[in-house]
Amino acid sequence: MNGLRAVLRRHLDVRALATDLDRYLTGAAEYFASGTVPFVQVPAVDFGGQADDAALRTLVADRIYKVRCAVTHSKESGDRYSPYTDELFLGREIPLVRIAAEHRLFPPAQRL
Question: Exposure winner among 12, 19, 45, 105, fewest CB in 10 A?
């Protein structure tokens, strides 16, 4: 988790992330602000709220990490992703990971 936070802290423009998310997924701002994923408790990421960029970066990192752990470390006793049952909800989380990774590789300020 600390590695993910460190990378996002230095290399993520959360305002550009919010813009790209909304372009890719209609209603993304509202979806991520709700903070609900049925198979894991995730923090709400309200890009339009009062949180500063540093706090938003931490929330994005925490959300990505918790979803990742629910998928890769599924155990009966904890948060658990269930294939087929939760795939729609996981599909809604993928753009956050994808676009954050794209921004890390190709920062918005350096795009053509």
Answer: 105
CA distance 39 to 47: 23
Q: Which helix (H) or strand (E) holds 40?
A: strand 40-41
Q: What is the DSSP string of 44-65?
A: ---TTSS--HHHHHHHHHHHHH
Cα angle for residues 41, 47, 52 (degrees, 5° grid) = 100
pTM: 0.86
CA–CA separation, 89 vs 86, rounded Å?
Answer: 5
User: For residue range 52-85, what is the model confidence (pLDDT) as tens digits?
Assistant: 999 999 999 999 999 998 888 766 656 788 888 8
The two tokens of residue 14 are: 């959360």
